[in-house]
Amino acid sequence: MTTRVIKDTALLAMADALEAGSAEILSANTIDVDAARAGGTSEDIIDRLSLDAQRVRAMADGLRDIAALPDPVGEVVRGSTLPNGLQLQQIRVPMGVIGMIYEGRPNVTADAAAICLKAGSAVLLRGSSSASASNTAIIDIMRAALAGVGLPADAIQQIPADHRSSATHLMQARGLVDLVIPRGGAGLIKAVVEESTVPVIETGVGNCHVYVDADADLDMALDIVVNAKTQRTSVCNAAESLLVHKSVADVFVPRVVAALQQRGVTIHGDPAFRAVNRDVVAATDDDYALEYLSLDISARVVESIDEAIAHIRKFSSGHTEAIVTSSLAASRRFAVGVDSAAVMINASTRFTDGGEFGFGAEIGISTQKLHARGPMGLTEMTTTTYVVTGSGQVR
Amino acid sequence: MTTRVIKDTALLAMADALEAGSAEILSANTIDVDAARAGGTSEDIIDRLSLDAQRVRAMADGLRDIAALPDPVGEVVRGSTLPNGLQLQQIRVPMGVIGMIYEGRPNVTADAAAICLKAGSAVLLRGSSSASASNTAIIDIMRAALAGVGLPADAIQQIPADHRSSATHLMQARGLVDLVIPRGGAGLIKAVVEESTVPVIETGVGNCHVYVDADADLDMALDIVVNAKTQRTSVCNAAESLLVHKSVADVFVPRVVAALQQRGVTIHGDPAFRAVNRDVVAATDDDYALEYLSLDISARVVESIDEAIAHIRKFSSGHTEAIVTSSLAASRRFAVGVDSAAVMINASTRFTDGGEFGFGAEIGISTQKLHARGPMGLTEMTTTTYVVTGSGQVR
């Protein structure tokens, strides 16, 4: 078992090597960015792809942060002495080999490699072909740093991104790969879930709701809706849908429409919302099912908290739902009724995040129920084994 | 949320109803047993299929035992107050809908229904067509008991077993079913893992090893090998393979061969084992990979503990491996080196069991790394959600 000291030494060496190799990384990144621009890629996506000295430094600092976190491996999850004298311990151990299939940002490459290394696993990185040169530069530097501290360079390996089939091979390497984590848009995640024979953790699709209850503090509700929708629109924990209890609709709907429109939000609303002004467009069921990731929000008035819960159970992706209410009974009913990874009571959906939750590092946010649900930190990247110590016990 | 009181009332009512309906269950069972006998089914399998008054009573008592266990739902797994005042709680909640696909014994029907009910989930039971009449009788009685205490009868549902396709539909009901658990032979489990798009927990295939180290107490080793192989051969935690360190082989191999042969065990051995007598047959790699579930064991002498670990990593199904040693260093090396759900140090492999571990009830033994590894009790049948309570926090 590789001790924490060795793993942290490797992480710090990798961080230093990334900073020292900044010029090399940036020159590789230029190749990717030039190719993307030549191919007519949108500036939005080019921004995610682009690195500069500051972003490389941030990548290195991310690795140093992971080195500072406690080692999840070796934690005794439970233990007891059985009636026959056997000593039972359930101990956290590495997963083994983790495959990452991801899009866009090259910083995911360093981040995912560091989290898997700290959790004691080898990682197979299958990034986007658009970031291929950047990823190769980053991975080569990290591998050299690993070897430099005496760890096998192959603990971090790049899967070539030039053919789609390389992702398929990774997803179907059952028995060789213990876990595949897709990170990216809904299309990528759906494809991985459907094609993979290796166990998968679904991450990130967030059709998050804010429900403003009959007993809501309406000033608080306005702050939370505006923050959840507009503070950052491209993230999975941004709000995509607003539900308002009919008893506060007359007062609240005009206020929230004004506040959102002032910030450039397009509201896709039901008749109650559309009655406010002509800029509210008609919402369809497709709108209620959509993760916009933009300055758009779907909105409707509901008859009751139960109708709100039923709407959420029908349309949600199971990521995060918020309720604004001063009623304890309503908050409990909502928390039990919706079936999502996280429930925010009088707080913005934007708080569902490994950093905000105090996990230090985050590999993604699981929207499935098996193994891990919600933000996944180092602990969620491990498995456990039972070690039973006896003195010759037989049955 | 259904409270523990209601769930336990239902479980006790189901237990009473099963006992009261014993005649009805036994008459249905006669139909299954007669059909099996007419079809030429082996007596071994007919024994597993057969019920009598005592087995029905044991089934009812199993439900009463589950009623006595603590409720896993509602447990606060972790909790803290974040720097911004948000109160974070990770709470255990029901999985939702669990599908069981299983073979053989009708008692699994009652057992699986009770565990899922106690864990707050609905269950879809897809048993073997050979036990169809028995399962229908048991399920009808349990459903009536559920309705009698005011719970929805549909919390326990039977999936017809008359077509293979009903199992396929269950495995592919992604979005409707949260988890599928196959219980049965290696063929069934492999088929479910490969065909399912619903998340699966693999259970039960056990190619378990006993390694007798250079520093073993050889009397203890003999007891453990004999117990692990012969105490019950048809179970997944029985030993299927024996590895002996070369430095004790001269003394131990003849002793263990004699002890096993005396109990009717056929040894499939390497040349060192075959040198003892002619009744030891030659082992192939196929033998080393096999879960015999019978009075057979594969056996070989290894050069070192590392060769034993390498052999186990190559051939094991990841269930349980035992080491017999008085060396602390060897026990640690073995526990870290093998990659299995459970490691027994100086104890029989037969102890990997929910009952032995003190979990009360067991739905199976997971040999996968995701979600649950080793014996799965009520806790492993749940998921968690984060409930975050604030006073208007935004980012």
Brief summary of the model shown:
Chain A has 395 residues and is α/β, with parallel strands linked by helices. Chain A has helices at residues 4-20, 22-38, 43-49, 53-68, 107-118, 132-148, 165-171, 186-195, 218-230, 246-262, 271-274, 285-289, 305-315, 328-337; strands spanning 76-81, 87-94, 97-102, 122-126, 156-158, 179-183, 208-212, 239-245, 266-269, 281-282, 296-302, 320-324, 342-347, 364-366, 374-376, 382-393.
Explain what you see.
Two copies of one chain form a homodimer. Chain A is built from 14 helices and 16 strands. By secondary structure, chain A is of the alpha/beta class. The first copy, chain A, has two domains: 4-203 and 363-388, Aldehyde Dehydrogenase, Chain A, domain 1, CATH 3.40.605; 208-351, Aldehyde Dehydrogenase, Chain A, domain 2 (3-Layer(aba) Sandwich). In chain A, strands 10-9-11-8-7-12-13 form a seven-stranded parallel sheet, sandwiched between helices. A four-stranded parallel sheet of chain A has the order 5-4-3-6, sandwiched between helices. In chain A, helix 14 (328-337) links the parallel strand 12 (320-324) and strand 13 (342-347). The first copy, chain A, is globular and about 70 Å long. Chains A and B meet through strand 2, helix 9, helix 14, strand 13 and strand 16 of A and strand 2, helix 9, helix 14, strand 13 and strand 16 of B.
